[in-house]
Amino acid sequence: MRAPQIIWVVDDDPSVRSGLSDLLSSYDYDVEIFESGASLLEHASEAQPDCIISDVQMPGMSGVEMFLRLLSAGKYVPTIFITAYPTPELQRQAFASGACAFLNKPFMARELTAAISTAVRNVRG
């Protein structure tokens, strides 16, 4: 039996974190939640998830900035960015940084799970 994939969720909105955690857990993912990019970065030295789902716009540090800091530390984790305030510039910036997907809130569960499957499959080959 295969171990569940580990998904880290980072969003400054507690209801989004809780909702994503419940949703992903129902699909048998092992989920850890973080309230900020800084809290995720503190934890990143201790573990390696299979995928990160991150809000783009958060106080203090954007999701893209968090992702770029992970990269500069030598850690690539497939990352899916989510936002309630999409703009073409934000989407361009996310994909230019190396994002696997960019989803507009609200999104369907199947959109998210498909993005996770694609992101993890592309990394594992």
UniProtKB/TrEMBL annotation:
<dbReference type="GO" id="GO:0000160">
    <property type="term" value="P:phosphorelay signal transduction system"/>
</dbReference>
<protein>
    <submittedName>
        <fullName>Response regulator</fullName>
    </submittedName>
</protein>
<dbReference type="InterPro" id="IPR011006">
    <property type="entry name" value="CheY-like_superfamily"/>
</dbReference>
<keyword id="KW-0597">Phosphoprotein</keyword>
<feature type="modified residue" description="4-aspartylphosphate">
    <location>
        <position position="55"/>
    </location>
</feature>
<dbReference type="InterPro" id="IPR050595">
    <property type="entry name" value="Bact_response_regulator"/>
</dbReference>
<feature type="domain" description="Response regulatory">
    <location>
        <begin position="6"/>
        <end position="120"/>
    </location>
</feature>
<dbReference type="InterPro" id="IPR001789">
    <property type="entry name" value="Sig_transdc_resp-reg_receiver"/>
</dbReference>
<dbReference type="Pfam" id="PF00072">
    <property type="entry name" value="Response_reg"/>
</dbReference>
